[in-house]
Design goal:
Keywords: Membrane, Transmembrane, Transmembrane helix. The chain is an alpha+beta fold. It has helices at 43-70, 72-79, 91-106, 108-111, 118-125, 127-145, 152-177, 182-200, 226-242, 249-271, and strands spanning 3-6, 9-12, 28-30, 36-38, 210-213, 274-279, 295-300, 319-320.
Length: 344
Amino acid sequence: MEDLHLPGISLRKSYCVFSEEVNSSIPLRLSPYYRILPVLPSQSSWSASVRMERSTIICYILKCILFGLLNPLWFIFSLAFEFYTHLHPFGLTHFTFFHSFVCSTLLIEPVTYETKEASLLLLLHLHLVILFGVGVLSSAALKEAKLKAQKLNHVILGFFVMLLSVWTLFGSIIAIGFRYKVPVFGFMYFLALCSLLASWFLLCNVWSDLYLTLPPKDQPFFGIKIYVVLFGLLHLSISIASFFLTKFWPLCCLLLFASFVFSCNLWSCFFTKSYYLCEHRRHEWDMQESPIDGIICHVVVRRNVRRVEHRTKLPIGFQFDDVLDINGLWYTVLESHRVSHRDN
């Protein structure tokens, strides 16, 4: 029988290897007697691999130092996530959410300074405590759900609620700027902050074994896409108009940029024909290990593949999203050094 050669691994046809801990730098050969025999690489290839890994780590350290100097708040926030893949998919979304949420929270009192309602004043003074409680409850609910794989419908719902939240924040700022029902829109401003935080947890993959990511061709900022250009022009025109409507126009522009990112991702997730389920990786350079990018399964969205002729172009070994069964998938669950990934 012929041998099947893959990057970093060599297998005999009609056999497969399931191993939780395999040194990916040593290719494997499966004998007819199911013995795993290491095929040692040459000294030159081993040295080249070590040099490549060292250069990758050095570049990663330099990038962390640069981000730490340019944006220390985001750098500290990213340190709260143990695995690289916790923030890797939808990275721009996490980045814009963090900055828009922090700025909107810090400016809640200046924006609503004219309110005279006693209950709202008390709410505004305790807004940090309440937001912290919302974050804790959302995280606990996500952990209690014990999802093995991230769900596309949850991600779509998260983007939709986040989009509504930033537009509510934007509208509240404009209304308060015109002194129109300040207590009402001040309360709506606070509720929008709570919903923005809670909906962001729907995008988090911290408590799931497998996370989802879109194929490069379906990602909104991969190449030039018409809907991205149209959304960009729309948000740009509204940003220019906000300059003449309120003195808090920098915050409005930030919220509109967040809306642009959320709307583009919402569109791409809703209309994508497929997505990948991937296992987590601890470091950025681990993404090159087998399986590449941690891709475990190719999932096809049935509602977006309606015509029969499309099914002839579907990838081998795919699963439909409405009958997805991950119990038969083989993947690695990384052990967390901070918290229990899942309660036994």
